[in-house]
Amino acid sequence: MTNEFPGLARGPIDHNASSVINAIASAKIDMGSAVLLNGTIPPAEILPRVEESTSPAIADDIYGIVVGGDTDGIYGIGLPSSDESTQAAAGAGEGVVVVTQGRCLARVDASTSITIGDPLGASTTAGVLELADDVSQFIIARALQPITSTPDRFNIIAVDVQREGLNT
Q1: Which residue from 120, 111, 144, 128 is spatially nearest to 66, judged by alpha carbons?
Q2: N or C end of the chain: smaller count of CB under 10 Å?
């Protein structure tokens, strides 16, 4: 499976159904990465700080998916970036655009097949979503595209970010 939206360079898929906010990166962030709010905000800043998620723990509540920023790279193939071409922000202090609700492209772990409507949560890989276990992981988004298990492991798919929380 490859990125089905190769012409989309930034932003949500559908502006009519999206909530998009501006934030400040705490470090390098790749396009399509799931991010958390960072509690440390320098006194001179008025925007929230975000960083790529790195834990599927129950307390790891994802704030949204990064869809643009100061570096404004393109969506890659889902792998961590090796240069600025697929980064939204190249480092701390740069601005990023985050979808907190609505449809956008996101980095996913495709080591397990994902079908349309499957719940997605944070994985242990920075900024990547994975198939949520429905019990101990917050459901951040629902898959809008299927992806079969792939040896490449990471990919970009369309998701619907709703930040549902635990499926109880």
Answers
A1: 128
A2: C
